[in-house]
Amino acid sequence: MNKDFDALCGGRENLIRLAHKYQTPLLVIDKQKAIENIDTIKNALSLCKISNTVAYASKAFLCGEMLNIVKENNLSLDAVSGGELFLADRFGIDPQKIYFHGNNKSVQELTEANDKGVTVIADNYEELELLEKIAKKPQKVMLRINTGIEANTHKYIATAFTDSKFGILHNSDDFKACMDLIDNSDKQTLTGISSHIGSQIVEAEPFIQNAEILTDIIKSLKRPLCLNIGGGYGIKYLKESDVDLFGLISKVAAAINEKTSDAVGCVKEVIIECGRSIIGDAGITLYTAGFKKTTPHRRYVFVDGGMSDNIRPALYNAKYHFENLSRNDTKTELFTIGGKLCESGDVLGEAFMPHNTEYGDIIACFCTGAYCYPLSSNYNLALKSAVVIWDGKKDYLALRRQTYNDLISLETRGDL
Ligand SMILES: Cc1ncc(COP(=O)(O)O)c(C=O)c1O
Question: For the chain, how many structural domains are there in total?
Answer without folding.
Answer: 2
